[in-house]
Design goal:
5 helices; mainly alpha; single chain; 89 residues
Length: 89
């Protein structure tokens, strides 16, 4: 209904948490915009690094850890020092 009243050319956001929603809205309203699945993969640092590695882009050693035991195992496997970061955000 809005599109028939206004000449909406696109939808955007300055908030990373809304990028996937923006992509879905663009698809729904047949507007140019990002692919929601690509946005979700790029916003997840673990998935992003896996995709980059599969494409032959060098990435630092990384592991996904859900708890302190996982962190300790990853640190032993990778070697110190390590940096802990959330996968999303």
């Amino acid at each position: 209904r809005l599109r028939t009243t206004y000449a909406i050319a696109g939808i955007t956001s300055a908030e990373e948490s809304l990028y996937a929603t923006v992509g879905k809205l663009c698809r729904y309203f047949d507007l140019p915009g990002p692919n929601p699945a690509s946005i979700e993969q790029c916003c997840d640092k673990f998935a992003q690094r896996q995709l980059l590695a599969q494409a032959g882009v060098p990435v630092p050693a990384h592991r996904l850890a859900a708890n302190a035991t996982d962190v300790e195992s990853a640190a032993i496997e990778i070697g110190l020092p390590v940096i802990l970061k959330p996968a999303v955000g």
